Every structure is written in structure tokens, then in C-alpha cells.
Known about the structure:
Elements: H1 3-28, H2 34-52, H3 57-82, H4 89-98, H5 102-120, H6 122-128, H7 136-165, H8 185-201, H9 212-224, H10 227-237, H11 241-247
Amino acid sequence: MSPVVAASIAFVLLVALFAAFWVWQQASANAGMIDPIWAFSLGAIALFYGMASNGDPLARALVAFGGGIWGARLGWHLWRRNAGKPEDPRYHRFREQWGADAGRKMFWFLELQTVVSVVLSLAFAVPAWRAAPPSAAWVAIAVLIWLASVGGEAIADSQLRRFVADPANSGNVCRVGLWRYSRHPNYFFECLHWVAYVALSVGSPWVWLTLIPPVLMAWLLMKLSGVPMLEAHLVHSRPGYAEYMRETSALIPMPPRRG
Length: 259
């Protein structure tokens, strides 16, 4: 199967899936559950590309395994975080701002994410359809980046989950573990994850396309739907968060600033 046909199939299935979710969220008034569905569906695309492509077998296996495990872990984490909880403040703010137009605008907002998912899936497509096998050195680098990023994100998520679960920390700012060095260590490792597929694609004439997903993910998290919206809420709901912002790196972990 050609990459264009596979991407077209993935896009059509995503459009149908997100449209079905839109119907569900209209009744539940909880659009936040799109987050785990997005992660699960993108991981499924990695599996699909790995099986449908005719590229190098090792690269195909690494894409299917790496993207599939990443999507399953992140999806499960987001499901546990969001299921049965009030709607994420970001989506709730959209609903309030859009008013009577909320249903229509939410539909197109969700469907826009299908386009984002297909663009991100370039990271899976390029190595999956490469004809020549990647060198052992670049495979090792890709695997190391993947382990560091997925493992680091899992650690950051676990540290925050334990902090929030402790009643003594209610309303406080998490500064434990990785969160002492970055306000969003989970976002940092999420961006790093997409770099693994750049390494896996070195040697392919289309390797430059794999630079798009990590740049796009960083832009989305830092400039659009991640940090700006989340911190606009936290600075008003968490005493001391403004001070935390002054002292702590927004993304890349580094020693906190003092004074």
C-alpha cells in the first residue's frame, strides 16, 4: 500500500471517529475526553502504517512498536485523568466563549485535530516506507531517544498524579521531581518523543518531513492549546503559581532561578 493511500484511509477513519465523539460530547458536555481518544488513535495509526507499508522490516517494526506503545501509555494516562471528572477547563472555556455557537464550533475544532494527527503521522510514515534499512547507529540513537522521552513523560505524569492525589497538597503547586526543573516536563518529553523518528529516518530522502512533527508539537504545546491556556487557568487557581512561573523553566528542564 502506498503512503498516500494509507494516510487517506487514516484521515477518513479519524474524521469518522472524531465526528462520533462530537455526538457523544454534545450529550455529556465533556469534550476533554478527546485527549485520550486522540492519543489512542494516533498510536493506532503507527500500528497501521507499520503493517500496511512495504518499507524496511526493522523500521516498520520500530514504528509500529514505538508509536503503538507511546499512544497506549499516553492514552491510558489521559483516560484515567479525565474519565468521570469535570470537563477540562480549556474546553469548558471554549464552550462558554462560543455560547450558542458552541456545538458547531466544537465540531470543527475537533475535526481540525484530524488534520493535525495526519501531519504528525509523517513521523511514522517516513521511516515505515523507507526502502533502505537504517544504520545500526541511527537505530540505537532512535531507541535511546524513544526510551528517554516515553520513560521521562511517564515519570513526570506519575509524579504529578501522586502529588495531586495527596490531600495535603490540595491547591498547591507541584515542585517535586522533574516539576522542580520544568513547569511542563511532560510536554518536554512529548516533544522529544517525535525526534526519535527523525533519527530513524536518517538516510531516507524524505527525512526532512520528519522535522515537521516535533516542531508542530512544540508550537501547539507552547503557543496554542497547551501552556498558554493551562497556565492562564493555573495562575488564578493555584496560589504561588505566578512565582513558580518566574522561577522555573517553561519547557526544557534546568535548575530553578532564585531571587
